[in-house]
């Protein structure tokens, strides 16, 4: 095992040095970069699919990739505030590109189960999940495209061709989701963590979050949620693999609903959004 790990480490390092490396925070960003750069760059992902940024700790191989990355594409996730300075201290030459520039962030809304929604106005609580709106991804893609052209000018022609195709695919995805959700009568859905604010805003839906300030709801809040779920005739409770399903299961049992998993951090970003739209169409 020791020799295998050493061999794998050397093999991985040789790959990193063979082509330029850039780093992203989450798996969906890797998809965006690869749509434009294809195999011209290696994309290092810090928070891998299935992991949570709330409990994030970088691995040695990820830090090795950071040390030779030409650029870091940020997404505005909270973990970046804590970790990005450390990443930059590892590689002072690494260019940091904010892919959220030009996007009006919405505040993270929590359904406080007392008839009022609580909206946090502190900067740290702005919703980072912009990648779940295909139209906002077009803004991110433009930042990525411009950065890649600046970093690797010899590949501008390839980047441009790929970028144009990707932008058209985002418009097509947006139109497909609109049509899929067009005739959905119940426009409200319950989810544990409020990840789908931008998706809901884009397609005329309303998300009701179970968690309160990142915590499981108290008994009184849970009882109110159950009452609201019955009033809304909720048939499904959505959960993400990165978070607890305990409260969702309790609500589902009380109202006769099913618990269905949807992953906001899926690496198969395009197919995942199609899958989520189809789930909403069939379950709401």
Biggest beta sheet attributes = 4 strands, parallel
Please tell me how large the radius of gyration is: 20 Å
Residues in β-strands, percent: 15-25%
Q: What percent of residues adopt helix (DSSP H or I)?
A: 40-55%
Give the uncertain stretches in residue-range form.
Answer: 115-123
Distance separating the two termini: 49 Å
CATH fold topology of the largest domain: Rossmann fold
Structural class determined from secondary elements: alpha/beta
CATH class of the largest domain: Alpha Beta
Assign an overall shape. globular
Please explain how this structure is put together.
The chain is an alpha/beta fold and 284 residues long. Helices cover 48% and strands 15% of the residues. Helix 2 packs across helix 5 (134-151) and helix 8 crosses helix 9 (246-255). 35% of the residues are buried.
SSE arrangement:
Blueprint: H1 2-18, E1 21-26, H2 27-37, E2 42-47, H3 60-67, E3 69-74, H4 78-90, E4 95-98, E5 109-111, E6 117-119, H5 134-151, H6 156-181, E7 188-191, H7 197-202, E8 206-209, H8 219-231, E9 236-239, H9 246-255, E10 258-261, H10 269-283
Parallel strand pairs: 1-2, 1-3, 3-4, 7-8, 7-9, 9-10
Antiparallel strand pairs: 5-6
Helix pairs in contact: 2-5, 2-6, 5-6, 6-10, 8-9
